[in-house]
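Build the 3D complex.
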Amino acid sequence: MHFEVKVEVSPREGIANPEGSTIERALPALGFVMAGNVRVGKVIRLQVEADSPDDAKSLVEDMCNRFLSNPVIEDSHVEVLEE
Amino acid sequence: MSQRVGVVRFPGTNCEFDTIDAIRALDGQAEVLWHGQSDLQNVDAIVIPGGFAHGDYLRCGAIAKFSPIMDSIHAFARDGGPVLGICNGFQVLTEAGLLPGALQKNVGMKFLCSMQQIEFVSTTNVLGHHASAGDRLLIPINHFEGNYVCSPEVLTEMEADNRIVFRYTDNPNGSLADIAGICNRAGNVVGMMPHPERATSHLLGSTDGNSLLKSLLDA
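Done.
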């Protein structure tokens, strides 16, 4: 079965995120003084062939640990969207 | 003596010939090693030079770690062979797990290209043969992702083991503990963001890189 999977890679808590900090400093210039704690990551979408949603999830989690994210600085969250 | 140096080229590497020229000017031999081959051609030392290996897609060095040559470099490093990663090469070494930590985007989100003063902290590694702790060098940097990070535990361990090779005297990129270069436990694998091959003549503004490359040749 084919599964559509979404991976969210985000900077690990406690690790500085220069992209987020720069955006955070720019927001007040547009009047958004209420915004804070901006963190920038990335989203990867892919299709995988697997026997079940759980299999699809664990396959992609393995990809995350070995390649799609760098566990030193990033966390990843895998979501199976649809069959 | 490491007289023959293999300089690794990935698709997107762009400092391999500067590095080769700099090594030859010091009477060393140097040649390109293509990333797709796993034979290291019996070289005595490896340099992973600067550039944008595999376009820096996904993360700097993330795809390079799967190139066929990397398994051979792992084995070479395990056997004590000298390995130097410069700039993108440092990023490749961290992604490949040969050095701890990671390099992320500079604080301030600017590409930095400037002459930088760095200080030797540890000299018990392949770059330190002609140096003393506290020596100050002028070596240029040229990077967007040079902001070194690692966990507090790894930093404590590296400091205790004297594995911080260089610190910036005026931190340009937000690097943790002003780190400009580190080494592995044995001291045979070194990664640094500044480019020693670009500090090899008075015309370039500094000759301080020569002693580092000479040290690699003598390793």
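Chain B touches chain A at residues 58-59, 62, 66, 94-95, 100-102, 104-109, 147, 149-151, 174 (CB under 8 Å).
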